[in-house]
Amino acid sequence: MSKLKYEPVIGLEVHAELNTKSxxxxxxxxxxxxxxxxxxxxxxxLGLPGAxxxxxxxxxxxxxxxxxxxxxxxxxKSLFERKNYFYPDLPKGYQISQYRWPLxxxxxxxxxxxxxxxxxxxxxxxxxxxxxxxxxxxxLKSKTQKCSFIDFNRSGVPLVEIVTEPDFKDxxxxxxxxxxxxQLFRYLDVSSADMERGEMRLEANVSVRPEGTKSLPxxxxxxxNINSFKFTVAAIEYEIKRQITAIESRKxxxxxxxxxxxxxxxxxxxxxxxxxxxxxxxxxxxxxxLKMDRLKVxxxxxxxxxxxxxxxxxxxxxxSYGIKKTDAKILAETKDLAxxxxxxxxxxxxxxxxxxxxxxxxxxxxxxxxxxQATQIIRKLKEKNVGVxxxxxELEKLAKQVIKDNTKAVLDYKxxxxxxxxxxxxxxxxxSLGKADISKIKPILEKILKVKP
Length: 453
Fold this sequence. Notes:
By secondary structure, the chain is an alpha+beta fold. The chain has three domains: 6-127 and 158-304, no CATH class; 310-385; 392-449, Arc Repressor Mutant, subunit A (Orthogonal Bundle), CATH 1.10.10.410. It has 13 helices and 16 strands. The chain has helices at residues 57-69, 171-188, 229-248, 292-304, 310-321, 325-331, 335-350, 355-365, 371-385, 392-405, 407-414, 419-431, 438-449; strands spanning 6-17, 73-74, 77-78, 81-84, 94-97, 104-110, 116-126, 130-137, 144-151, 158-164, 200-210, 221-226, 256-261, 266-272, 282-283, 290-291. It has a nine-stranded mixed β-sheet with strand order 2-6-7-10-1-11-12-13-14, covered by helices on one side. Strands 5-4-15 form a three-stranded antiparallel β-sheet, with no helix packed on it. Helix 11 (407-414) runs antiparallel to helix 12. It is elongated and about 105 Å long. The termini are far apart.
């Protein structure tokens, strides 16, 4: 009897730090990376008694921009709540977040496979402090102990969370989605999304079920705070195998949070996962509701200033310039590269260099991205292409155009003026930007004119 086959059910939560100047609920600088610990703090982000938060308008604008780019609807009612739990990196004993009334809801994003991933919500919250774990010598006997240090510089930095429905069925789709979000954040200029700096973090909810099953499993394992695409894929792959092995061994899987140990190449238990009611969500009494009449201006501005999104740009490059899809994807990877490509296209058009040649050169040579370099690319391609037009049909087409445009030279040639032929030959070379095979031009002109020299 064959083994029962299983399929994964995966949902993602992506956190991105917004590139605002100040934190989410106070005026402390949000530029904390690499700074001396606990120097970008105040009573609000330290959670001191009596300190009152206020909303960072710029963060709300950026959150709305992300939501609209993902096809979300901005909620008619949106407000902040307190998510209560106790952990050393949470100075207030709660995180200000959104659960029941998120800012943006019901969007989607298309993957390269053609499948759509549904976006449940895009909501605004604050980041936590940063914990660092070290081994330190504590006394003269040289005994080492594990110590944890807290840096509150990150506490309160604006954080957007994008939550999907459980639509992923394989790790390649997860990787594609995560990279698309990172690309989107950078195109919108809302976050640098540098995973090594912790500006973008991934959490995956993973479970498995028998193939063909429609209902969701009665549990899910949350893989927490993974800071690279590689580790995300490795953690999910390991977790799928671990869960299948557990099910086949008749072990009951329950809700829990696990981390990824890259040294041991395995996930490990962090804590039993809480349900929403365990966080005792309730509306933040010190912050007002985000009302639609005030949000409408932000929505209109975001729509008005929305840049061409990377996947739209990629499609346009294929349809407008006739280049390969693989090249278009590379060239649309960043806004700077895409703009450089189109600058080179503009210069190439004036010099008779086609888009395919330019795309191929940029993709393979990876030149520096600046306008001067674009000019050099066109010059190099012109030099490379000089004398390459040998096809007689193409040369004949050029010759006919020159004869049509130079009636005086044609009449002079027919009257026996040999110098007129040189004028016609020169005109063909000029029209071809110097690429025509000069040895073939004269016979073709003579053939068309049907006059013996």
